[in-house]
Specification:
Elements (H helix, E strand, L loop, with lengths): L1 H41 L3 H15 L3 H11 L9 H26 L3 H9 L4 H31 L11 H12 L2 H29 L2 H4 L8
Length: about 220
């Protein structure tokens, strides 16, 4: 078994690196897309609100694997050809961007209206109030759920193996098909996902605890 692990290690390590890069890149794009969609859905302008709403509902109503297939296999028929890496990043970013938009929208909506009114009283325009007053407070609220989606994206990168991206799952499949040691290789891949995702999940829980509003409330005075 140890000899097998030594021979598999270079391929699996390359797969882990690509998986992490896909996760980081996909989440970075998804965060920007999710925030833009959330702002569009909160806009009083129908020309922004309705298309954003339709986009989010369509993406959330279809499976990620189908979106990956559509981007990689269907879009070239319409003249847009992407490499597997580009298609994988686009699929992950679009899918998670739609879900993160709801997280951002909920976070912004959770900020009391009095904050906007106070900003207006100070002479701030709506855009300035959103950027300087509302969003900084909303970010504190949305960080824990965003962290959970980050861990979920790391695991969902396994789906991009279906469009020939040689990430961790794809590398494991290749090794298994060459060696026929399905139990050993898939157990190793399983453990690699756990070794990375469990500490990440614990980190998200720690961050959620640190950002819990209850922790920053002043303690009640002791009874006389």
């Amino acid at each position: 078994m140890l000899a097998d692990l030594r021979s598999w290690a270079p391929d699996l390590w390359a797969g882990v690196q690509l998986t992490v890069l896909l996760t980081l890149g996909g989440m970075a794009i998804a965060l920007v897309l999710g925030l833009l969609l959330a702002l569009a859905r909160l806009s009083p302008r129908r020309a922004l609100r309705w298309p954003a709403t339709v986009f989010v509902e369509v993406i959330r109503g279809s499976p990620l694997i189908l979106q990956l297939f559509y981007i990689y296999y269907v879009l070239p028929l319409l003249g847009l050809r992407l490499t597997p890496i580009q298609a994988g990043l686009a699929g992950l970013a679009i899918n998670y961007g739609a879900y993160l938009s709801e997280v951002f929208r909920a976070g912004i909506a959770a900020i009391p209206r009095s904050q906007s009114e106070a900003a207006a009283a100070l002479g701030l325009r709506p855009r300035q109030a959103m950027r300087l007053v509302i969003l900084p407070q909303a970010i504190r609220i949305v960080v824990p759920p965003v962290g959970n989606y980050f861990v979920s994206m790391f695991k969902d990168t396994a789906l991009v193996s279906t469009i020939s991206i040689a990430e961790l799952m794809f590398r494991g499949q290749l090794i298994a098909s060459d060696t026929f040691k399905y139990m050993s290789i898939y157990t190793v891949v399983f453990l690699i996902y756990l070794v990375i995702s469990i500490p990440a999940s614990l980190g998200v829980r720690w961050l959620e605890h640190r950002l819990d509003p209850a922790r920053v409330r002043p303690a009640a005075p002791a009874p006389a």
